[in-house]
Each structure stands twice: as structure tokens, then as C-alpha cells.
Specification:
The protein is an alpha/beta fold and about 260 residues long. Helices cover about 30% and strands about 20% of the residues. The protein has a single domain, classed as Nucleoside phosphorylase domain (Rossmann fold, 3-Layer(aba) Sandwich), CATH 3.40.50.1580. Helix 4 links the parallel strand 10 and strand 11. The longest helix is centred in the C-terminal third of the chain and has 28 residues.
């Protein structure tokens, strides 16, 4: 089964989707799942922010969401999200298949191993080495301006960055900015599932050089919705490829060396 963190805009290409509630040791996930088939492949969708977008980034029940994916039988997870660009060549409307992240969040439940059992996850490469090239190819085939790789800086939210913070992130050479990739990617890896990110660039962040208006939530939603068709096309191409590709990556065995 393929798992996708998405919203209502994705559900309508599934055949006979059903609502599925999942109980977890970490409380309920953000919402009920929509589970159906696409080209004969089982797919489970979950809106990470809730059915009514009621969970801001720092309140998303990340552990419950990840655990529920595993409980449903998902072994590969696609994590679309909105991002701001920190570099001028990464333009609004482009898609970025991230290969690195920097976590600047705090206070989030970011591991399943917080005692008494303790494990130390190797997380040098946060995104699946097998899914990433498949996602890049799918985005390009969908006609999107596509960036193969990029570092996403994950901030706490729900506020956007100050000009000084954003300029600092850009000077560091990081590419995009987001509020949910951490701890989502880490938790998925701790469960030995594969994870790939497709980031929709919705805006230039505040500190990018030039005469650029500061980002607003309304502008983010407008651009994300305008790019939704391209993202859906990319997902429709990626899902069959991900489903038929054998898992030979390290994601499936990553916790064996984490003792």
C-alpha cells in the first residue's frame, strides 16, 4: 500500500474510496483515512493538518499519523507539502524533490524511542534513495519545473520567518522552508517505511533578495491550489512506479543498526 499525506484535492482520483479510522498508542491521527485503489494499487490518504485544517504545524499529531500508516500496511509514504523558496532560481510553481532537511522545530514529539527503550536512528539521508529518482521523473513527466534535491529548513510555525531569519537561511545555502517535514520524515523512517517529499513552491520567503512582498497565508494557498493539478499528475505517475519497484533501500532495515 502507498500512503500519501494530502488533502481533499487528491481523493477524487481513487476508485471507491472508503473512510477508515485508525486507533494508535499515540492517540488519533489528524483525521480518518481515505483508502481506495488507483490502477489496482491500494492507496491511503491522510490530511496531515486535519479534515478542516484544524491542526497548525506544531500541533499535528505526527506520531499518530506515522503509526497509523504502518498499521494500515503502508510501506512507502509520499509527503507533498507547501514550501517557500529561499533561492531566486527556485520559482513559485516549481516542484522540489528534497534530499536533505534541517530541523529548527522544538517541543514536538519527534521519536518513538523516548524511554525507557532508546534507539539512535541513522538519519544522514532523510529521504528514500529509491523513491527520490522516481519522484523526480514523475514531476518532470507532469511538466513541472522540477528540482532534483534541495535542503528544506523546517521551522516551528505557525508564524512565518522574520526578514533576518529568512536571510540567514538563504545565506546558509538552504533551498526551501516548511513547517511539517520534521518530525514527519524521521518518524516514518523509525517505522522502517520509505518516505519521499514533493514540495510545491508557493512563494519566495521573506529574506530572498529583491523587491519581493512578504509571504502571506492567502498567497500560499492561492499558489498551492494553482499547482494542484500538476502535483496530482505527478502523483498519478509516481504511485504505479513506486508500487512496482522492489524495496532494496536501507529504509526497510534502518533500525537494525540503531541500538
Amino acid at each position: 500500500m502507498i500512503g500519501i499525506f494530502g488533502g481533499s484535492g487528491f481523493y477524487d482520483f481513487l476508485d471507491d474510496p472508503k473512510r477508515v479510522a485508525v486507533d494508535t498508542p499515540y492517540g488519533p491521527p489528524s483525521a480518518e483515512f481515505s483508502v481506495g485503489t488507483f490502477q489496482g494499487i491500494e492507496v491511503a490518504f491522510l490530511p496531515r493538518h486535519g479534515a478542516d485544517h484544524q491542526f497548525p504545524a506544531h500541533r499535528v499529531p505526527f506520531r499518530a499519523n506515522a503509526w497509523a500508516m504502518k498499521e494500515l500496511g503502508v510501506d512507502r509514504v509520499i509527503g507533498p507539502c507547501a514550501v517557500g523558496s529561499l533561492q531566486l532560481h527556485i520559482e513559485p510553481g516549481h516542484l522540489v524533490v528534497s534530499d536533505q532537511l534541517v530541523d529548527r522545530t522544538w517541543g514536538r514529539d519527534n521519536t518513538f524511542f523516548d524511554g525507557p527503550e532508546t534507539r539512535h536512528l541513522g538519519f544522514a539521508d532523510p529521504y528514500c534513495s529509491e523513491l527520490r529518482p522516481l519522484a523526480v521523473a514523475a514531476c518532470r513527466e507532469a511538466g513541472a519545473g522540477t528540482h532534483d534535491g534541495g535542503t528544506v529548513i523546517v521551522i516551528q510555525g505557525p508564524r512565518f520567518s522574520t526578514r533576518a531569519e529568512s536571510a540567514d537561511f538563504a545565506r546558509a545555502g538552504w533551498h526551501t522552508i516548511n513547517m511539517t517535514q520534521a518530525p514527519e520524515a524521521q518518524l516514518i523512517r523509525e517505522l522502517e517505511l520509505c518516505y519521499v517529499n514533493i514540495a510545491v513552491v508557493t512563494d519566495y520567503d521573506t529574506g530572498v533578495e529583491g523587491e519581493i512582498e512578504p509571504v502571506t497565508h492567502a498567497a500560499v494557498l492561492e499558489k498551492f491550489n494553482a499547482t494542484l493539478g500538476t502535483l496530482r499528475d505527478a502523483l498519478a505517475r509516481l504511485i504505479p512506479e513506486a508500487a512496482k519497484t522492489p524495496r532494496r533501500c536501507q529504509c526497510a532495515t534502518g533500525m537494525q543498526a540503531a541500538g
